[in-house]
Amino acid sequence: MEKLIYMDNHATTPMDPRVLEAMMPYFCEKFGNAASKNHAFGWEADEVVKNSRQLIAKSIGAKELEFVFTSGATESNNLAITGVARMYKEKGNHIITVVSEHKAVLDTCDALTHEGFEITYLGVDENGMISLEELKNSITDKTILVSVMHANNEIGVVQPIKEVGAICKEHDVLFHTDATQAIGKVRIDVNEMNIDLLSMSAHKIYGPKGIGGLYVRRRKPRVRLSPLIHGGGHERGMRSGTLNTPSIVGFAKAIELADKELEAENERTSKLRDKLQTALSTRIDHTKINGKLDARLPGNLNISFHYVEGEGLMMAMPEICVSSGSACTSSSLEPSYVLQAMGIPDVLCHSSIRFGIGRFTTEEEVDAVIEKVVQSVNKLRDLSPLYEMVLEGIDLDTVAWTEH
Amino acid sequence: MAYSEKLLDHYNNPRNVGSMDKKDKSVGTGLVGAPECGDVMKLQIQVEDDKIIDAKFKTYGCGSAIASSSLATEWLKGKSVDEALKIKNTDISTELDLPPVKIHCSVLAEDAIRMALDDVRSKQDDEG
Q1: What is the three-class DSSP state of A299?
Q2: B43–A contact, CB cutoff 8 A
Q3: How far off is chain A from B69, nearest CA to CA, in Å?
Q4: Same domain, residue pair A236 and A269
Q5: How close is the nearest chain A Cα to the Cα of B114, in Å?
Q6: Closest chain B residue to the Cα of A307, Cα to Cα
Q7: List of chain B residues whose C-beta atoms are within 8 Å of the C-beta of residue A312
């Protein structure tokens, strides 16, 4: 097989060698438990965890003690939502979130309905954006939490987080955002944006897998959480378990690099994305770009190629590693719920491909992807009875299909 | 998910891709599936003296759907109508070693075969 091209940086990213280098001493030499308060190994670990925590917190305008380490964004989302729900249940039982959230948010909210909570799911428009008006109208005196993701993992659209924060503050409701995809690409200030809880993950920003964190506001208001993991009372009781020192060091290094290189990297990745987008939508007919064009993550391109099926297309270009909203690529056999929520017809959901350009994507790779995608779409359209019918002038909506 | 070599061969080198004149009395067309479900198969056969002398397909769908219909056309060519009716979806799924979530692709191929056979039979019956 030809050399593989990785263009699925929303799923995960390769670790930056500089991150690995920073982590190395913390496996075999500096292996202490940060909770060992009585000897030098423990002090050493405690010190580096403290510095890492400070650096990560500072990158979003927060204080050291406002950041809790977790195993990743899924756990952070679970802890934020379930933790708030159980802690504030006397105050109210209503939570507001969005239909296009990650499953870690949606399934957590769904699980809470069995504990008597009521969930309102805000819709999204054809661009994937929420309506601030709908948010305002959904808040009741029982609402305790609003959870709106910062940037979407499929279509890359960036929600108006600052405006959402302002509305939540005005109504005295806690605001959580899943910023997993936004970190390292969008400058975030939790105070300016009135964010009370924020989930993040290291492996989406060229850090190690299995480490993430949750920002939990300590002042105005002081947010309290009911823990999900009980034990030694680590992380001020919010998340027990020995701290993963090497990964925490890697996480901090990844944040440091992302912070330092954010603007330059965004400029580079958005240029590559634009090149890919322009080439694919001009060289291939009948395409549709999914998601708002002017409020998107720089490396994201989600595009549907009419009359070819996403998984079939991916099989035609096995050296190119991307994702599809096609049902065939998901275990549920349902097409992407994010695209469906935007009102995109199922047939176009099946035809969608998500490209995720990242720090290590080169222009040569983008050029190779363009050629391969054009060639593969043409090949599959030669095989496609739908494309043939369209060329014959048949309106596909008038055909009596046999649904199965 | 790892696909079998036979499946990949049919996907990468699909046999008998194309279309026939569906108005031709000797041609039977089977069009099954739906775009919103992610699979549409068009399978055509040409029958003369109760024998399938040619078969063609076009498929919109995943790799397993394309391979299932390609294999179906290969099997159909040269068979009598009665022999063709004996092709079962399990024969296709076994030959291509389809993973469980892709069994519906072989079911679709069987449906397409039957529909094409029905179509040509009804045309030839009309002819009397």
Answers
A1: coil
A2: no
A3: 11
A4: no
A5: 13
A6: B60
A7: 60-63, 65-66
CA distance B40 to A400: 12
A193, A165 contact by CB (below 8 A) = yes
A144 and A107 within one domain? yes
User: What are the Cα distances from residue B19, in Å, to A313, B22, B29, B61?
Assistant: 21, 8, 10, 17
Domain final residue, candidates A222, A257, A292: A257
pTM as predicted: 0.94
Do residues B79 and B57 lie in contact, with contact meaning Cβ atoms separated by under 8 Å?
Answer: no
Identify the CATH number of the domain in which residue A278 sits: 3.90.1150.10
Contact A312 B107 (CB under 8 A): no
ipTM: 0.93
pLDDT tens-digit profile, chain A (404 residues): 579 999 999 999 999 999 999 999 999 999 999 999 999 999 999 999 999 999 999 999 999 999 999 999 999 999 999 999 999 999 999 999 999 999 999 999 999 999 999 999 999 999 999 999 999 999 999 999 999 999 999 999 999 999 999 999 999 999 999 999 999 999 999 999 999 999 999 999 999 999 999 999 999 999 999 999 999 999 999 999 999 999 999 999 999 999 999 999 999 999 999 999 999 999 999 999 999 989 999 999 999 999 999 999 999 999 999 999 876 666 666 789 999 999 999 889 999 999 999 999 999 999 999 999 999 999 999 999 999 999 999 999 889 888 66
Known active-site residue A168: no
Residues of chain B contacting residue A352, judged by C-beta atoms under 8 Å apart: none
Say yes or no: A253 and A296 in one domain.
no
Contact yes or no for B58 and A384 at CB 8 A: yes
- The CATH number of the domain holding residue A219 is 3.40.640.10
Q: Chain A 307-346, CB below 8 Å of chain B: which residues?
A: 307-309, 311-312, 315-316, 326-328, 331, 333, 335, 345-346
Q: How far is B7 from chain A (nearest CA, A)?
A: 11
Task: Find which of A383, A390, A391, A394 to mutate to test the B interface (most B CBs within 10 Å of its CB).
Answer: A383
Q: Chain B, 79-108: which have a CB under 8 Å from a chain A CB?
A: 101, 104, 107-108
- For residues A266 and A253, state if they share a domain: no
C-beta separation of A327 from B38 below 8 A: yes
Q: Number of folded domains in chain A?
A: 2
Q: Which residues of B are known to be catalytic?
A: 37, 105
Distance between CA A135 and CA A168 in Å, rounded? 9
**Which run of H or E residues covers position B66?**
helix B63-76
Ranges of beta strands (E only) in A306-351 are: 320-321, 323-324
Is the CB of B38 less than 8 angstroms away from the CB of A326? Answer: yes
Q: Residue A404 falls within a domain, yes or no? A: no
For residue A188, report the phi and psi dihedrals to the nearest 5 degrees.
Answer: -120, 135
State which residues form the domain around A390: 5-10+262-398
